[in-house]
Fold this protein.
Amino acid sequence: MPGAPSDPSDPTVLRPLTLSLDPALDRAAVVGWEAWEAAAAEAGSRRVVAWLLRRIDPEGGEAADDFQDTVETLLGASDPDDRVMARAELAEFLTGHDDLMADTLWDGVLSHAEATGDGDMLLDAIGHLAAIAEDHGDPLAAAEYHLAYLAWRRQPDNAGDPEDVQATFEEVIRLAERDGARAEAALFEFRLASFTRLAEADDPRASEGDWEADPTPYPIWA
């Protein structure tokens, strides 16, 4: 799955909003969610909360209590489901305040959803990751996330609401048009129409498995 831009010369790169006194956490946040959570566990919840507060609110208006329980659960819970819920809660809070950390944490939620086959969680994480990419001027990366959901949904035994597939197609079409890929937008409109006919006919392929005759994943435009 695509991730946040990482080229320092790219103006859309998601950068930390402020410098901090914990460069190890700064570096790990850029590397990825597993590296950051390992560094955070070593630093401890109090330092992590202080680090987060400095990044999102250097003026000190946010209270540590807003984060403490969530961070402690993320770093210390033995149940992976508890950890991923804390990860998603923290990512939700950070979205729009610190998009680098939000992107990093949502990627961790996405990884858990893929590993467990949780389609609803997968769709939620992809929606947030795509929105962050688009907000930072990269509709192509945003579309790649949505196409990744369609590729997952088309796998044997993977199921979901047909309306989620239709909404995902609509997002891909919108992003293709925004990116100037008019021919690709028209092609995805055709694919959406074909899928909608299956859904209206209550074809089981609209709810589970691959609805296409060709199993090749949909390509992204250049």
Q: What stands out?
A: Confidence is low (pLDDT under 50) at residues 3-18.
